[in-house]
Amino acid sequence: MTTLSSADDAGQTAARGAGRLPTMVDVAQAAGTSQKTVSRVVNGEPGVRPETVERVQRAIAELGFRRHDGASHLRRGTSTASIGLVLEDLAGSFYSAVTAAVERSARERGYLLLTGSADGDPERAGRLVQAFAARRVDGLLIAPNLVGDEVLTANLPPDVPAVLLDRPSADHGIDEVLSDNAGGIAAAVRHLAGQGHRRIAYLGDDERFWTSRQRRDGFLATCAELDLPTDGLPLDSLVSLGALDPAALAAAVTGWTADGVTAVVTGNNRASVALLHHLHEHPGPRPAHVGFDELDLADVLDPPLTTVAQDAGGIGQAAVDLLFERIAAPGLPPRSVVVPTRLVVRRSSPPPGDPSPPVRNAR
After folding, report:
1. For residue 190, what is the enclosing H or E element?
2. 294 Cβ contact partners less than 8 Å away, ≥ 6 residues apart
3. Residue 35 backbone dihedrals phi, psi, to 5 degrees
């Protein structure tokens, strides 16, 4: 009977604890050797001591490691004329626009696009990365926001070109295309401050999202830069993350109203819709409102919503361009592209005391 050593046990625990499939890194840790040696064993290359081969094979069997066919495919210099796109959500308007831009560019190059949604599940994201690599895609675009670096890097075969969308890796060691989150939020705050608002609050989504943290930090930095008064209140008391259920949102807005808040910045479409629902259910004077990301029908709301518009198509195009450059020249250093946002001013962000009519409950 084969038993796990302490190193084997640690490798297995690391893989399972991270909620992902085992990788060559885990096998190397369990076998007490290097990732390069594991790769040579997996690919049947000569020059590895028999006892080392035995240790690696035992670790592979115990951990349930499965070889990435994508890596060997790329080494052979062949092409399947396909790329993979792993998204957080296939339904959202942002990711739909990203997908459309990627698919169009891939089609123009004669490539097939394979897509999959992680649906907020890091383990599923890791399986999708491995599945696309096993199907020998020529490169990968990875966009799930909740996935940690252990999935982005450990499940990614080292020889498969990849680009990250809408969030970076921890060490910026993989090509990345990001929206200008901090700059977009700064434009929203400066617009409201320019309208005369001095007490501005921020409503954001789940703090686990990298973009949510980026936009919150941009909000706090811009408020501090503009020296907006807080009357002794801690600035972070004007920030609510993840409070998008009706009861929590009502409590946050009630507190802000009591503290003299006259304007709110929402960090994404989910937060914008949640606030709009709250204002509809609680008629009365409304705060000025700027939402990050363009909202469907924003221009026909009453009043039309001021937004920070992301260039989702531009993000998708920049990402697929980087990917094909990486496929053609794997030795390029990692690159980072930041795609600008733009402020679209409408009537939801008037000065304090503007005589705009209150929201009416139409029921």
Report:
1. helix 181-194
2. 93, 307, 309, 310, 344
3. -65, -35
Question: How far, in Å, CA of 189 to CA of 292, rounded?
Answer: 11
Are the beta carbons of 311 and 296 closer than 8 angstroms? no
Q: How do residues 293-348 score in pLDDT, each as one tens digit?
A: 998 889 999 999 999 999 999 999 999 999 999 998 988 899 999 999 999 999 99
Q: Where are the beta strands (DSSP E) in the chain?
A: 82-87, 112-117, 140-142, 162-165, 175-179, 200-204, 239-241, 263-266, 288-292, 306-309, 336-339, 342-344
Query: E strand or H helix at 220, and its extent?
Result: helix 210-225
d(C-alpha 184, C-alpha 170), whole Å: 22
Q: Which residues of 296-310 are buried (b: 16+ CB within 10 A; e: fewer)?
A: eebeeeebbbbbbbb
- Sign of the dihedral through C-alpha 86, 89, 93, 94: negative
Render pLDDT for 224-276 as a digit per residue (tens, 0 to 9): 999 987 666 677 789 999 879 999 999 999 999 998 999 999 999 999 999 99
Q: pLDDT digits over 1-38, tens only?
A: 223 333 344 444 444 444 456 777 888 889 999 877 88
Interatomic CA distance for residues 294 and 162, integer angstroms: 28
3-state secondary structure string, 134-188? HCCCCCEEECCCCCCHHHHHHCCCCCCCEEEECCCCCCCCCEEEEECHHHHHHHH
Nearest-angstrom CA–CA distance, 312 and 339 = 9
Token pair belonging to 149:
């670096």
Q: Please count the helices (runs of H) and the strands (runs of E) in the chain.
A: 13, 12
How far apart (Å, rounded) are the C-alpha atoms in residues 106 and 31? 40
Instruction: Give the sign of the dihedral formed by CA 311, CA 312, CA 313, CA 318.
Output: positive
